[in-house]
Amino acid sequence: MHRLKQERFPETRTIILHEDRAELIVNNRKFENSTFFKYEDILTGKKFSSSKSQPNYGLYVISRNTTIVLFFLKIFGVIESWSSVLALLCSTIIMFLIHAFTFKTYVELETNSDEELVLIKDNPDESKFEKFIETLYKNRKEYLKKTYYSNNKHINEETLHWLLDQNIITQHEYDIRIDFL
After folding, report:
1. Residues 6 or more apart whose Cβ sits within 8 Å of residue 70
2. DSSP letter at 10?
3. Model confidence over 101-112: pLDDT tens digits?
4. Is the pLDDT reported for residue 152 higher than 70?
């Protein structure tokens, strides 16, 4: 059983590869949710999304823009003291650091189900993440081939075509099985 644990404040995502399905466990400070994805429902496509919306980004933008305005007001002599400019500059830097720390890039693996199989990209690191994704697709392929092709003596043309479309079997394996039908 393979497992990938992804920790990024404030949540932890764990994906476990079982023999016939993948399980995604999302745990944050408010709840823990476990979702199962049958290998039949996991497709081969990936979508990359930049980041889920972070509420602190809006505060960062507001404080940054206000600091810029106050800086120019001070330069042109409209305000006398640097204290308000420096205070907002400090808050801008703090908000930027918070945003940079919580910024997440996600990878959504395409599925046929209503649930989303979403992982944090390159977490814990790029090589472990890519190796795990390869293992997920390898396990999926082995399970589907064993279940629908190797152990199925009464396979139909529609199932064979689906296996070929999903890259579970080769064109040669498809042709051989079709000739027997």
Report:
1. 79, 84, 85, 88
2. T
3. 667 788 888 888
4. yes
Residues in the chain: 181
Cβ(148)–Cβ(160) under 8 Å? no
The structure tokens listed for 88 are 């907002």
- Nearest of 172, 175, 168, 171 to residue 150 by alpha carbon: 168
- Amino acid identity, residue 180? F
Strands (E), 29-153: 32-38, 42-49, 106-111, 117-120
Helix/strand number for the chain, H first, E second: 5, 7
Consecutive H or E run containing 128: helix 126-145
The CA-atom distances, in angstroms, between 6 and each of 10, 35, 95, 138 are: 11, 16, 24, 21
Sign of CA dihedral 27, 28, 32, 38: negative
SS3 readout for 135-155: HHHHHHHHHHHHHHHHCCCCC
Tokens of 39: 């290998």
Global pTM reads 0.70
